[in-house]
Amino acid sequence: MRGVTESATTEATGPAPPPLVPAPGAEQHVALDFANSALTLPGGQSLDLLATPEAAARWLAERHLAPPGTDLREVCARRLRALREQVRALIASRIDGRAAPSPALGALNDALTTAPAASLLRWDQTRGLHRVPAHPVTQLVDHAMAVLAADAADLLTGPHAERLAACGSAPCTRYLLRTHARRHWCSIRCGDRARAARAYARRTRTQTP
Fold first, then answer.
1. What is the mean pLDDT of residues 157-166?
2. 9-21, pLDDT tens digit by residue?
3. Backbone phi, psi, residue 139, to 5°
4. Are 69 and 12 in contact (CB under 8 A)?
5. What is the C-alpha separation between 53 and 4, in angstroms, rounded?
6. Are residues 163 and 25 in contact, defined by beta-carbon separation less than 8 angstroms?
7. Which one has a higher pLDDT value, 194 or 192?
8. Is the per-residue pLDDT at 154 higher than 60?
9. Would the pTM count as exceeding 0.70?
10. What local confidence, expressed as pLDDT, does residue 16 receive?
11. Which residues pair with 46 in a beta bridge?
């Protein structure tokens, strides 16, 4: 099955990236998981889970936003990456208490209104009357982006918005929902790294003449 009009017949190349432990809140809000699909690893290395059409299709399928085996072209992956940057900009502005950037608001609203949300009524001789999604397969990416944008809007305006935080362990760039007032780490690994950095800084201060 083809996912979009711009689909191709190329097969996924290379192994899937190793599974990452979702940041707190990412399992509740797919938009938070979406924002965290570009991240910085220890050592300053970058990982983009939407870097290629194959990777983007895999990411969507794993979150039930596209059928398994969907084929995408680079233009589709590029649209997803562009929306992700705007979602990240809105999350960052919400955390920092700044005004929401106008381009990010426009991009999110465009994604919200591109794909119809209501299922339509259809009839055929085999199934009789039945409901089908308003978006045809050729608009799959539009639908996925609308779902992601709607969840981002809910996250940014709902009761969880006050718990949004950036991971406090450099160089990590992931966002999370705080589980308690003091936790600002997206994973145990990042927490251990932050504690180790603080311990090293204390030792350095005490050893300085």
1. 95
2. 233 344 444 567 8
3. -110, 25
4. no
5. 12
6. yes
7. 192
8. yes
9. yes
10. 47
11. 40
Q: List the structure tokens of 184.
A: 């600002």
3-state secondary structure the chain: CCCECCCCCCCCCCCCCCCCCCCCCCCCCHHHHHHCCEEECCCCCEEECCCCHHHHHHHHHHCCCCCCCCCCCHHHHHHHHHHHHHHHHHHHHHHHCCCCCHHHHHHHHHHHHHCCCCCEEEEECCCEEEEECCCCCCEHHHHHHHHHHHHHHHHHHCCCHHHEEECCCCCCCCEEECCCCCCCCCCHHHHHHHHHHHHHHHHHHHHCC
Residue 68 predicted with pLDDT over 80: yes
Structure tokens at 12: 């996924």
Q: Minimal CA–CA distance to 36: which of 124, 155, 133, 127?
A: 155
Query: What pLDDT does 9 receive?
Result: 29
Written as one letter, the residue type at 86 is Q
Instruction: Encode pLDDT of 134-149 as tens digits.
Output: 655 457 899 899 999 9
Q: Look up residue 101 and give its two tokens.
A: 């950037």
**Of the candidates 155, 152, 156, 194, which has an alpha carbon nearest to the alpha carbon of residue 172?**
194
Q: How far is CA 139 from CA 76, 158, 164, in A?
A: 11, 28, 31
How far apart CA 77 and CA 96 sit, in angstroms, is 29
Q: Which residues of 40-79 are buried (b: 16+ CB within 10 A; e: fewer)?
A: eeeeeeeeebbbbbbbbbbbbeeeebbeeebbbbeebbeb
